Amino acid sequence: MHFNSKDIDLYAGQKDYVDTAVVPLIELDLTDAGMKASAEASEYLQSLTVILEKQFKGRILLLPPISYVRAADRAELGEQLKKELSETGFKHIFYLTTDPKWRSVEELENVLWLPAIPTGDMDQSFKKSVMEDQLRQVLPLFTKEWTHHS
Amino acid sequence: MSNNRVSRRQFLGYTLTGVGGFMAAGMLMPMVRFAVDPILQQQDAGDYVLTDQAVADITEEPVRVDFTFEQVDAWYTSEVTNSAWVYKEGDKLIALSPVCKHLGCTVNWGGDPENPTQFFCPCHAGRYEKNGQNIAGTPPLGPLDEYQVQEQDGFVAIGAVRENTLV
Q: How many CB pairs under 8 A join A and B?
């Protein structure tokens, strides 16, 4: 489900079934050199989370992307996110990111790090097949988590 | 000509009838045109979205067929790709919506290794028969929706979604 009023109404009535939160983490790099790559990573991660949401609409709540500047303290941000989410009823929380700095952050479990693929210049159908390949890599991680802790 | 002289009175009568006739016609014609307009409207066949799936390749085994259309959401136009599970029953094409009737996940044909001839929803293990009938005891409460489907030049074209008519 998306983080909008319609889906949240539905979520409020179906909390037992919607037990997984997905949090995209996006680093903002606004320097001349890094802006393009940052935008590509953001575009990639958002496309991926949207098709993920489409596949698992009834079980996941896709939160809006958490964006932070390059200098942000990942450990502290992770701590805060974890605290906020621990006050909800979500049994499973996944963080999706293309930012390699999260790999060394111990605060968060289930951080799925994915290398960003620049999809901006691809034509529609090629982009679609690339994104579906990516989705196929991610899906088993979700189903595995669900079957292990359900 | 000479023994049929038109009197001044007759001439005026003809003239007024003629002009009045034109005026009446001028008023009535648009009204008639408006009245019959719905009948003249072209039935739009463009409600069907053509896919690149050849009908000849469809078997009794459901395959996923993607189709793309433009969706306008307030001021934002986007291309939306949906898919359908298409198979043949005899010679008849059948297209089922992949949206689970429970909470809207996407179902897969044969997604559950233990039930290879059913649709399976990975979210809460909902299952459906091949014709979309939901299996009692699993979370979904209704059968999968069905798409209107037709063949256009040998390819599958997918139309509006409707309630399942097979179960």
A: 39
